[in-house]
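Pasting as-is:
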Amino acid sequence: MDLNNIKDQVSNLTLYDLKAGVRKVQNGMDPQFPNGRSLAKQCALAVMNYTEMESKVREATNNEPWGASSTLMQEIANATHS
């Protein structure tokens, strides 16, 4: 596949196409991305341009049922007092 072909395909994507693709990866439905949820998180953090500490706080306060690790909480606490 050459670059012009890729450019043509990308230029025809709509916002709906992009959202559907991201949701597919997030939900683990795309076999090309078995770790889709982690990949989607990393992409979102990069796109939103969060600082390292903001990323850690977001990770610690997410809706995952197991909560944040003690290491992560300690890093946030140490940064709070510096």
